[in-house]
Amino acid sequence: MTTTEIRCVLQGLDTLQIAYYLEARPGGGFPYESLLVTKERLRANRQRQGATVELNGWEFSLRPYGSSSGYPLVLENRDYTLEFGEFNNPSFFVTFRSEALWRAGAEALHREFEAWAVGAGLRFVQAESVSRVDFAFDYLLPSVDFNVESVVSKSAKDSTHRQDGGLQTLTFGRGDIVLRIYDKVAEIEQQSAKVWLFDLWGVREKVWRIEWQARKAILRRFGIRTLQDLFDSQGDVLRYLVTEHDSLRLPAGVGNRSRWPLHPLWVDLREQIEGFQSQGVRREINDAATLDARELRIAISLYGYAKRAAAICALREGKDSVSLERAWTRQRLLMLHMHDAVTWVSDVAAKRDQIRFGKG
Asked: What is the distance between the alpha carbons of residues 247 and 189, in angstroms, rounded to a whole number?
């Protein structure tokens, strides 16, 4: 097979998940309470189909249960899935659905959601945060001449799905980066029923999809936080994925597979990705997000120790429990008692350098 025999029939975002930081405007009237009451009524009546509700001109199906990630309310319609809660942080976790992304595009959907949220009585308190992006490239292939051994990947895990003796899906990775190469026509016919893709492709057979699922950790390495960051820098993360993380090869003996020639499909894919917007950033090292993550891990550890300190205080004072403030006050006094201002300066400087040079 040569590059002239294959053709990219569609490329773009197939799934997009964004966290939004919203709060109800004073007097805005966003109906958290009434939605919770309706949800509990549905659950009590064991209704699995949900109820239709209208908010600011949009119709949704309200699920009779919350989300697995801890949001008490879930609304769905053709374009969006909204997971949200008044006391969650971030308060809204929004999935832009596949058909809407291919029909309208991410930017239009984002602006549409912003306008809806404001009209529904909410206000934005900080910029949105992109959590997951699925990059999809659909190819018309005259034949499939590759298998799991043809893929060279940094991912430690892989799996193969076959049907009737033929290859149907290759999956590499789990978590932050997942690559799937699969028969999209078979997937439509057997699972998703996304027959509207046929019109976008202009064909109804022999289309395979190359799809990367990229989550927050890898996106942050390339400076992608907001939706505008994604538009500006998606080429950077895609170039890393297609050149360093994964590749499709043509067998050439029994030597190092990473030295096998690139498959024509991968050659064309690289050319397609060259057209994506980028900033020329290879990856962000020791940026603010990395320091934030370090601080969070320390906070988690300190919080665990604070609970143990509170338990000791409770035993000493004959109580069932004491507050975080009470436990922390005593620990602060103990730390101040052992604090040495001279060694503090030198030790902090040493640990700072350890972090700078990736050793701490």
From this structure: 28
Residues of the chain with pLDDT under 70: 1-4, 277-294, 297, 353-360
Work out the burial of residue 207: count CB atoms within 10 Å of its CB; fewer than 13 is exposed, 13-18 middle, 19 or more buried.
buried
Between helices 264-273 and 227-240, what is the axis angle to 10°? 150
319 and 202, same structural domain? Answer: no
In the chain, the number of structural domains is 3
Which of 107, 121, 112, 43 lies closest to 77 in space, CA to CA?
112
Under DSSP, the state recorded for 257 is G
DSSP letter string, 100-111: HHHHH-HHHHHH
What's the Cα-to-Cα distance from 211 to each of 188, 284, 354, rounded to whole Å? 15, 24, 38
Q: Which residues contact 205 (CB under 8 A, 6 or more apart)?
A: 185
Same domain flag for 228 and 146: yes
**Same domain, residue pair 199 and 303:** no
Alpha carbon 240 to chain centroid, angstroms: 17
Residue 125 lies in a domain: no
| CA–CA gap between residue 13 and residue 218 (Å, rounded) | 16
What pTM was estimated for this model as a whole? 0.75
Per-residue pLDDT, 187? 95
* pLDDT number for residue 282: 41
239 within 8 A of 278, measured Cβ to Cβ: yes
Residues 32 and 24: beta-carbon distance below 8 Å: yes
Secondary structure tally for the chain: helices H, strands E: 11, 13
